[in-house]
Design brief:
Blueprint: E1 7-8, E2 12-16, H1 22-29, H2 47-59, E3 62-68, E4 74-84, E5 89-96, H3 106-120, E6 126-132, H4 136-145, E7 148-159, E8 162-172, H5 173-180
Parallel strand pairs: 5-6
Antiparallel strand pairs: 1-2, 2-3, 3-4, 4-5, 6-8, 7-8
Helix pairs in contact: 1-2, 3-4
């Protein structure tokens, strides 16, 4: 079996990362439409380096493959990073690799799954994320699941010859639990 249904939703499930998917991740991370993040796209992402990265990610932290439930197709990844168990906080990051899987609610469903896991299983209290100001679809998705903007760093990223804002968003455990019940 390639994927394991760790966190199951209606249309997607989250599975531990499989290092055998390195070639697909390399394709996505070298695609400017997927990894337009100024810290990722300028890097040369090779198959060997990505395989090592996925092996590391598969053994530490909370890093998941985002998989379609209907046909076990890998469509992206979602992770909790900077987990601080003492202060019960973490950061969230995600991406959807193929254009045809964006705008269909898969990201929102995956976020709900990982937030439920974060708050009810890992006992976290505050999850934050960063999103580029030129990503209105991402901002709308995060708002949809309950994230609120708490700050903005103006013109913080130089991207495609222009500066874009970096938006900071967060959600607390009680806000998520109240919204979901």
């Amino acid at each position: 079996m390639r994927y394991f249904k760790k966190l199951m939703g209606e249309r997607v499930y989250l599975s531990p990362i499989n290092p055998d998917d390195a070639e697909r991740y390399v394709k996505w991370l070298n695609d400017k439409a997927v990894s337009g993040n100024p810290t990722i796209y300028p890097q040369m992402i090779s198959l060997l380096s990505q395989r090592k990265k996925l092996e590391q990610m598969s053994t530490e932290g909370q890093n998941f493959a985002m998989v379609l439930a209907e046909n076990d197709t890998l469509i992206g990844g979602i992770s909790l990073t900077d987990i601080d168990a003492c202060n019960r906080s973490a950061a969230l990051g995600l991406f959807i690799g193929e254009t045809e899987h964006r705008g269909k609610g898969y990201g929102a469903e995956a976020i709900r799954l990982i937030l439920d896991y974060s708050f009810r299983t890992l006992n976290l209290h505050n999850i934050m994320l960063e999103v580029h100001g030129d990503n209105p679809q991402g901002v709308a998705c995060y708002h949809k699941v309950g994230f609120k903007e708490f700050g903005r760093r103006h013109e913080a990223w130089f991207k495609d010859g222009r500066y874009v804002d970096l938006i900071y968003m967060e959600i607390l455990d009680r806000e998520f639990i109240e919204k979901e019940t």
